[in-house]
Request: fold
Amino acid sequence: MPLHSPAPSPSTRADVWNHDNPQCHVHFQLFADVEADVLCRVLNHFALQLLVPQRVAVIQRDDTLHIEVELAGLSWHRARVIGDKLRNLISVSSVELQLVQTSRLQATG
Reply:
């Protein structure tokens, strides 16, 4: 059986639409219906872009999932494109994006 080595951490992927846009740290907040595959469908939008979130949190309240995803290393334009794609998921009722402040990053890091 071949030995498997851990995959190298993905390098930051350039925003091909806006090369000059600075990279930022974005907090996505979503509300979605409670369905078994909704979290996989949400995270798939990041995986398709070869992006690995720094933090994912999910809380179920009654018939709603509150999903939070934090991700660094993408432009604000690219974050908005991903947000628009997440809004198109049938089970997702709302998506909000926020820039994470530098002081917050230092407090958690």
